[in-house]
Structure formats: C-alpha cells, structure tokens
C-alpha cells in the first residue's frame, strides 16, 4: 500500500463549519469532508479491500464508501492535513490482522488454590448450620 497513491484517490469537499469564528464561519468553507471508495480503489489489493470492508464495516456507508470530516481548525488547509493523517491511521489500523489466541491450561498450583478455597468456603457454610440434636 502506497500512501501517496491512495491520497490521490481521495475526494475532498469543503463545507461551512459550525462553532467558533463569529461571522467568519458564515463566509468561509473550512470544514473538510473526505470520501474514499474502498471497492473502486486501484491501489488496494483484493485481500486488503476485504480486510478493510470487514474491519471498518461500522464506519462505511451502504455503498462501502468511507466518510470522514474535520472542522477542528479555522483553516481549510489545516483541516485537510488533520483528516489525511486520521485517514491514514484508520487505514493502517484496519489492515492489521489480529493474532490468533493460543488457548492455555490453568497451572497445577492455580487448580490446587481454587479447590482449597472452595473447601474453606464450604467449611464456613457448614459451621453456619444449626447443630444437630440426637
């Protein structure tokens, strides 16, 4: 995966941002929306596409397009830099294959401790019973 080639496939859209800035907010489009079509990407292999579709499923639209937006800064260029960083982090995280878990057995000492604890607890409860009268 080449980051620079993938960045060229991104589509950006500028909108008016909400929040601080006074009248400046009403005039300037500083909010950036990023869209990336995973299935139509020419830079990703089929395996990478499948992995991303599986791992980023909650963040995708019905058409399997990843949408991100940023309006943290008043500057459109700064927001664009922020969103590109965020996108690259998300993609690299989505491409990681989780390691398989190796099932382990409990140690002999842990089994022994558990059984002793059970015996102590049972003995406590026996002591709480009323004494039997013969």
Automatic annotation (TrEMBL):
<dbReference type="GO" id="GO:0043022">
    <property type="term" value="F:ribosome binding"/>
</dbReference>
<feature type="region of interest" description="Disordered">
    <location>
        <begin position="98"/>
        <end position="122"/>
    </location>
</feature>
<protein>
    <submittedName>
        <fullName>Peptide chain release factor 1</fullName>
    </submittedName>
</protein>
<dbReference type="GO" id="GO:0004045">
    <property type="term" value="F:peptidyl-tRNA hydrolase activity"/>
</dbReference>
<feature type="domain" description="Prokaryotic-type class I peptide chain release factors">
    <location>
        <begin position="16"/>
        <end position="32"/>
    </location>
</feature>
<dbReference type="Pfam" id="PF00472">
    <property type="entry name" value="RF-1"/>
</dbReference>
<dbReference type="GO" id="GO:0003747">
    <property type="term" value="F:translation release factor activity"/>
</dbReference>
<dbReference type="InterPro" id="IPR000352">
    <property type="entry name" value="Pep_chain_release_fac_I"/>
</dbReference>
<dbReference type="InterPro" id="IPR045853">
    <property type="entry name" value="Pep_chain_release_fac_I_sf"/>
</dbReference>
<comment type="similarity">
    <text>Belongs to the prokaryotic/mitochondrial release factor family.</text>
</comment>
<dbReference type="GO" id="GO:0072344">
    <property type="term" value="P:rescue of stalled ribosome"/>
</dbReference>
């Amino acid at each position: 995966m080449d980051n620079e080639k993938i960045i060229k496939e991104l589509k950006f859209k500028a909108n008016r941002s909400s929040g601080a800035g006074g009248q400046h907010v009403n005039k300037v489009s500083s909010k950036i929306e990023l869209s990336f079509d995973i299935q139509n990407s020419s830079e990703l292999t089929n395996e990478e596409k499948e992995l991303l579709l599986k791992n980023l499923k909650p963040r995708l639209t019905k058409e399997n397009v990843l949408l991100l937006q940023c309006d943290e800064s008043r500057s459109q260029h700064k927001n664009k830099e922020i969103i590109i960083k965020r996108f690259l982090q998300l993609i690299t995280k989505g491409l990681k294959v989780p390691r398989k878990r190796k099932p382990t057995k409990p140690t002999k000492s842990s089994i022994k401790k558990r059984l002793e604890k059970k015996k102590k607890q049972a003995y406590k409860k026996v002591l709480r019973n009323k004494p039997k009268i013969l």
